[in-house]
Sequence to fold (238 residues):
Amino acid sequence: MDDKSMLEVYPNPIILQSEGLLKYILETSVYPREAETLKELRNATTKHPLGFMGASPDVGQLMALLLKLLNAKKTIEVGVFTGYSLLLTALNIPRDGKITAIDPDRKSYEMGLPFIKKASVLHKIEYIESLALPVLDKLLQDPANEGTFDFAFVDADKNNYLNYHERLIKLVKIGGIVAYDNTLWGGTVALPEMAVSKPKRDWRRCALDFNKAISKDSRLEIALVSIGDGLTICRRVC
Ligand SMILES: C[S@@+](CC[C@H](N)C(=O)[O-])C[C@H]1O[C@@H](n2cnc3c(N)ncnc32)[C@H](O)[C@@H]1O
Fold:
């Protein structure tokens, strides 16, 4: 994908970064270091009927850094789509690492599967074709799973982010990280509702409620990072 089309598929208007600055960041520090298999998966996903709606590559780069800093081995992903963030995670955890990846859309997952296989990381992935909440509840039914995950990435239905949070905060270990994508929702969180197109209003409200609740959550250290469509990084502290 060339730079221009990447800007076109970038999920939403970049209100806190000019296009020029974003282009500079992508060209200088992100694309040159993006793994070839990730690039290929990203390009192939442009043929998906929904286009590329994966994590943006600069978010991916930050996630890779977090995974390495944590020395993460056991992770959860809620919202797989064609697997950009999944492949990114698989490339940045050790050989014996494991990702529990949840998404009811198997067809999209299968579109990205050849790239995951090509990168020889399929053995690290347990794909579960399901809505996420029942899977997280099932994991929590076994107390042995509590506090065992190093990292979780949530990039799915925004109306459930707080529901995911209540479960994931019990599943990740103290010191572990849960990262939530799209928490600035195209910058709409900073706009009055009337200035936001109707289809975006419901999830804008979800993002507002989520951001408010997270900022009050004393179990966490947080950073709401203005990257991509907004990434909230939560570190469990108790
Ligand atoms: C933005 S895409 C995920 C992109 C992915 N992280 C990537 O980097 O390519 C959102 C995904 O969330 C999935 N999704 C929506 N509702 C869900 C739910 N309740 N449980 C799990 N996944 C869900 C959709 O099927 C879709 O594939």
Summary: The chain has nine helices and seven strands. The pocket of S-adenosylmethionine is lined by residues 53-55, 78-85, 102-105, 108, 131-132, 155-157, 160 (CB under 6 Å). The chain has a mean pLDDT of 94. The beta strands are 74-78, 98-102, 125-128, 149-154, 172-181, 220-225, 231-236.
